[in-house]
Amino acid sequence: MKNLIILFVLIVMPLSLYSEEGFWSVLPSTTLKNSENRPVQLDKWYNNGNFIYKDAICAIGEGGSGSFISKKGLILTNYHLIRKYIVEKDSLVQNGFIATSNSKELKLENLYIKILLRSIDVSDIVNQGIDLKQKWSDIETKVSEVFPVISIGNKQEIKREFHGRKHYMHEYKIISDVRLVMCPPIHLAQYGGDLSNWKWPRYSADFAIVRGYENGLPYSPTGYFHIRKNGVSKGEAIAICGYPRGASYDLTSAESMYNFIPNKAIEAELLDLRIKTLTSALDTLSTNRQPFKNLISSLNNEKVKYVGMIRAFDKFNIPEKLKDKELACANILETSSPDRYLKFNNSCTILDSLCLEYNSVSQVYNQFQGAIKPIILFGLARCAEYKDKMSVERLREVLDKATTAYPIDLDRSMAKVMVLYLLDHQSKLIPPILKNCPTNPLDYIDSIYKTSDLFNTGLILSDKFSIQDLQKDMGYILYHQIDSIYSIYHNKYQNLNNKIQGIKHYILTTLYDEGCIEWSGTNGTLRISYGNVQQVDTNQNENVTILNEWINHSVILSSYNYSYNFTTTAHTSSGNSGSPVLNTKGEIVGLNFDRDIDGICSDYYYMPQNSRSICVNSRYIWEILNGNHIYSQLLKEIND
Predict the structure, then answer these.
(1) Does 23 or 73 have the greater pLDDT score?
(2) How confident is the model at residue 326 (pLDDT cuts 50, 70, 90)?
(3) CA 446 to CA 562: how far, in whole Å?
(4) Mean pLDDT across the stretch 85-91?
(5) Rounded CA separation 18/563 (Å)
(6) pLDDT digits (tens, 9 = 90+) for 215-243
(7) Does residue 43 contact residue 119 with C-beta atoms inside 8 Å?
(8) Is 115:175 a contact under the CB 8 Å cutoff?
(9) What is the largest CA-CA distance in the chain?
(10) 318-336 and 474-513 helices, crossing angle to 10°
(11) Closest Cα partner for 477 from 493, 461, 458, 453?
(12) Beta strand 565-568 pairing with 613-617
């Protein structure tokens, strides 16, 4: 641990100077600058194989982060990251879980962790391949020839940085044997449920402890962190490290105004319709309701996120701020390079025009994705249309999955709601068969569900069901007409998108070259963000309620007079779930698991004053582990 502490003295001690920072790539020769231009080098994170900071941080699959907390491969991460891997084991973990010995740990099938071994600048190789118009797979092969994997089984990934100005090869060790050691009771880990996401205050115990195994034995990491028992203090300097992938920093003012906000509004409205339709059907379901409740919760979480984005973009004038950044770049170019100034301005004007044209086309695209794709009838029609291109086993798998997702009556209700939406919005997706329908369109939908053979999966699987039979089916006719309209707009969508991306690439690289973009968009590689502990407020009544809940599970918390969760000013994004929150001594003081709704817009325009990550207090974790002797063996290992 000595090297770790020295590293933090060198790198994290000046954290109070960096409360205005965003996401920084942890790459060789990366430099951070504060307001006084005092650089902090990160080279030492790649120091001759000795234990260094990055070695104690891992990626949890492709969607989250974690950190080693023992020399025998224990990993601290979020409960919600591993939730889907223990669905089949719900009965074992519903009231919490603790493996009292290694043999009792639960194998988490299909979960793996990635440990970064090295990052190498391969920009020259990649740029040469791009200039020669080589396939990406050929470029990857060339990189692996020049830099062979350190060990068989490692994974190499090439990631672009700064809009293609740089490319790095990251090599990871893969640990594919991951086992659950401990998790809290589900209702305490998910306290408040998905409806509480993006909100503060929070009272969640969203943590879990897993262990990595290599060749059947506990994995021995190069280094690991200690967990601070006393938690955090308000104003304390911290750093959050993990593998985020949600912050792009590549939105232009034209896109935000003409495309981003209108499309998020469509997505949110369609999600709301799905939620209301599913909710109204719950009482009529005779089958297990829990999967539908889970789906409603997930859809609502997504809707709230989109509504929050729209609100934040308006509240903080994000399109105007992006425009100001582009104008600042133009002012620099006007003085330094008149030719580039003209090209930059012309590019911005062209992009405005393209995004305006793209607006109506992308609306059709989003209406199809949100209103048509969720309807099972149309999914079955597509399966039947392409049945000859799938194996019988694959076709049966897809059909079974589709027909068990909703009852037919629920799918009919969903189809009628979405058809009404398309009619009310005079969507271009409305097919001739509905426009010219002699009866009420909703009655026509009813007749389709009564007569269509698409729900007869046995018939579709049989050789007797031909394409000629399919073309007579009312459900297929409706699907085919809508899909034909969509195909036309989808081609326009792709063509316009390609044009936009080409011009946008020039604009963004120019912004970067002129110092108007400081950070590279996140891409699932290791990043660090700096900030301070912000809110440690607590609701005594809520805390007492939770304390009593723990008592019901034979866990005695020694105190409730502190904040179970806290917020920081550090920037986080999707993929930062499970990231350790570290103090200046290199101790874990918290575990990131969510962020406030206003902070989401920082994924597109970073505003430190509005970034607010939400974290589990390390003191809360310690209180839980100290609250029952059944955790004593686990505590002993963490303390060693």
Answers:
(1) 73
(2) very high
(3) 57
(4) 71
(5) 25
(6) 999 999 988 999 999 999 999 988 899 99
(7) no
(8) yes
(9) 80
(10) 40
(11) 453
(12) antiparallel
